[in-house]
Specification:
Two copies of one chain form a homodimer. The first copy, chain A, is α+β, with helices and mostly antiparallel strands. Chain A contains six helices and eleven strands. In chain A, a hairpin with a 2-residue loop joins β2 and β3.
Chain lengths: ~210, ~210
């Protein structure tokens, strides 16, 4: 808990902290504008160096919008704790959030094949070596987009704070306050009904292994 | 795992399922449009029957935009499992996501006082009885918004599926596939440094107690 310090939520200009958040999550919300209204779609993403890879069906409406160059922003959130303060007014959550702004780039055939393998490797490292390569039909059915992480193109916000003190909150001294940490855990893998007789592969074991605890 | 069935992600017109998702999470992404570009902000929310309560500082830019009647959409996601298929193409995640569309209503003074207590009660049931009421200054500094959950105003998407079978994926029979369940857990409460001598209150104990396991 020694990273905690008393300050309100704030922007953090630390690229490593941004990467840390992005790499700790799987899903974000991609928002774009269609006919003047906000359109928001949950998206899997994978960070590959200075870009975020997104993919989906070539039939997906929102993806086609952003692929066509519409301004877009991907938001990723990690909730770290409920902040139970000595007053309701001061109660809050500790969280990290990142917004990464477009424009997105549509990847062409060659770049797409590489990107989809990278995508898989980021999510489940080692998996691509355990399965057959994607075939032409699969690649043709997939839209792959790249969202560059550019200086000035992202915003990281971090709230990592103890609750307000009783004095700060104008509250009684004997009201408990503190944090309730929130954590995302991966449970042991569950084989598909037709795979119960097969050993759990190395890639999946590493995901939930002691290294990730 | 008996709720799993083989179908692609799809819209679910089940209000109870929507409420179940909304009540299981704390944070969403509020998206609106500013100067033709999407603006996305992570937001705490609390469901109160047929509305979602949002709140923030009266100084928050995005909130003022949506308070002024800009179209807005709140997106909430729960990631339930990594879906490790016999091919990278079929690999995916199981998740539930909800989008709830505005317009938002700004709550006036009287409604705001009630809404902020409700907000606190939804997040940490029982907490308002353990702390002093919000005072006039606190209420004046808070913007409270209500996002109605209207028929036709929300969309729930659920992907809850086993991976594609080897036959469906055109893959070898001996490639393991299955799910890696993802879960959000609340860890035991951590008292603030000045509250270590105080008993953990009932409201906080209930949050992390056996009833929530």
């Amino acid at each position: 808990m020694d990273r905690l310090h008393r300050f309100p939520e704030q922007g953090v200009a630390d690229r490593a902290a941004l990467d840390g958040l992005l790499d700790s999550q799987w899903v974000g919300v991609l928002a774009c504008v269609v006919d003047g209204c906000p359109l928001a779609v949950p998206m899997l993403y994978a960070r590959d160096g200075d870009r975020l890879l997104l993919h989906g069906s070539t039939g997906a409406g929102a993806l086609r919008e952003v692929a066509a160059g519409a301004p877009a922003v991907l938001t990723v959130i990690a909730l770290d704790a409920l902040v139970v303060a000595p007053t309701t007014f001061e109660s809050s959550v500790n969280y990290r959030s990142a917004t990464v702004r477009g424009p997105l780039e549509t990847l062409d055939d060659e770049a797409r094949a590489v990107a989809l393998d990278t995508f898989s490797e980021v999510l489940v490292p080692g998996r691509t070596a355990e399965v057959r390569p994607s075939n032409r039909k699969e690649l043709a059915a997939t839209l792959a987009l790249s969202l560059p992480i550019r200086p000035g193109g992202w915003l990281l916000k971090v709230a990592a704070d103890w609750p307000a003190t009783p004095a700060e909150a104008d509250a009684a001294e004997d009201v408990w306050s503190g944090l309730v940490p929130v954590r995302t855990v991966l449970d042991p893998p569950v084989p598909a009904p037709w795979a119960t007789g097969l050993p759990v592969p190395e890639s999946v074991r590493r995901l939930t292994g002691p290294d990730d605890a």
